[in-house]
Amino acid sequence: MNSADITNKNRRVAFMAATMFFAMVGLAYASVPLYRLFCQATGFGGTTQVASAAPVAATGKQISVRFDANASDDMGWNFRAVQSTMKVVIGEPTLAHYTATNMSSGTVTGTAKFNVTPTSAGIYFNKIQCFCFTKQTLKPGQTVDFPVQFFVDPAILDDFDTKTVSEITLSYSFYPTAPDQQANTNTN
Q1: Among 43, 87, 149, 153, who pairs with 122 as Cys (CB 3.0-4.6 Å)?
Q2: pLDDT at 182
């Protein structure tokens, strides 16, 4: 084997190693958005679905929905669900309310993260309108009502993993975020 062959082999190995390096870096950057898309498509981890409207016909069968509310301690908000549970007709649009009061002496902006348990029900829990899609800004002492319109997809009754589910918990957690031009400054 001559030195030209060895040089070509070394270049190929270096090229393959560089290609693998850049592919791994690319996968690392793409993993978070791909995971988010996977969760939204499958309901994995209790990720709810977003819908523009409820199905045409409700089933007449009911399921209990429990509402949970949490706020980060450093926000200074009293955040709670107005109703603790509701019996809802599967397939029928339903409106629930959360409320938040800024107990701090300064203006605070926050964003709500959400999930559904059991996690297998996430793909069937569809939100039509939700305060979690935008940043929320509350002035000192301000109280705001946050409505959530949702429905439970009738397909929940046909899924082997969810057909025996009798209660779904919708949980929101508010965390402080930096205000920006897109923040929803509530004036209620």
Answers
A1: 43
A2: 45
